[in-house]
Design a protein that fits this description.
Layout lengths: L1 H19 L3 H27 L6 H21 L2 H22 L9
Helix pairs in contact: 2-3, 3-4
């Protein structure tokens, strides 16, 4: 009986969240989250190919793209947890790209 009630309650919750409340913004938010999640697949595949742990450029690009879309979603939905989490993270991703493209220890040109 407990499992049946739990199953019904969880099913009702998921229906309410993903079906009843579905709109364009939900699709945008899910799209941003999927893009953000794809960065882990990119990193995993690159690491497997290299035979060691690597963080490819695409990881940071997926991070920025997914983070920005998720931030816009959070701002529109007025979700402070999403806003706080993504706003700071985007700056970190951009800083990592800056370190990749403009390292401090560039060899001097002669």
């Amino acid at each position: 009986m407990f499992l049946m009630n739990l199953s019904r309650d969880v099913g009702g919750y998921l229906y309410d969240v993903f079906i009843d409340k579905a709109d364009m913004w939900l699709l945008i938010g899910i799209g941003g989250q999927l893009l953000f999640t794809a960065r882990f697949l990119v990193q995993w595949i690159a690491s497997e190919r290299a035979g060691r742990s690597v963080v490819p450029l695409a990881f940071w690009l997926f991070s920025i793209g997914g983070g920005m879309i998720t931030l816009v979603y959070g701002i529109h939905k007025r979700e402070p947890v999403i806003i706080m989490g993504q706003a700071l993270s985007i700056f970190i991703y951009i800083r990592n790209l800056m370190l990749i493209f403009w390292p401090k220890n560039k060899p001097a040109k002669e």
